[in-house]
Amino acid sequence: WRAEIRGARLAGTLALFYWNELGSPSSVALGSAINPTDATLTLTVVSSVQLGDLVQLESEVVTVTGVQNGGLNLDVARASHGSVAAAHAPGATAAGWGRPHRAAQRGKGT
Fold first, then answer.
1. Which H/E stretch holds residue 10?
2. Which residues of 58-83 are buried (b: 16+ CB within 10 A; e: fewer)?
3. How far is CA 26 from the centre of its chain?
4. Quick one: which of 31, 80, 88, 105 has the most CB atoms within 10 Å?
């Protein structure tokens, strides 16, 4: 995608976030309740998430900042991508989105 307006060149970056709908629903869930200020999640099973991955807890999205105990505990930045930090009960599904995939288009000659 490229646009030129009176000689100006515009460029943009698109970030795609997705969950594989053809795969099974996530079997990873919170092992204990968290409140809106908690920065560590305890899961029911070991997860395969990595630093920088996104995880969805109900309507909240968190960014993984640390992985402990082989993936059983995750340090997270809460309220990522415009979501709101909220309390979550034990058993809330933790759906991993992986890392954002970015596609960039540069203007002509760049």
1. strand 8-10
2. eebbbbbeebeeebebbebebebeee
3. 14
4. 88
- 63 in Cβ contact with 100 (< 8 Å): no
Please check whether residue 100 is in contact with residue 92, taking contact to mean a CB–CB distance below 8 angstroms.
Answer: no
- Look-up of token digits 């795969």: 23
Residue 21 · residue 95 · CB < 8 Å: no
- Which tens digit of pLDDT belongs to each residue from 77-88? 999 988 999 999
What pLDDT does residue 36 have?
A: 98
Instruction: Look up the pTM and report it.
Output: 0.74
CA 38 to each of CA 4, 26, 80, 104: distance values in angstroms, whole numbers, following the listed order: 46, 22, 14, 34
Phi then psi for 98, rounded to 5 degrees? Answer: 80, -165
- CA 48 vs CA 11, 56, 64, 89: distances in Å: 34, 14, 11, 22
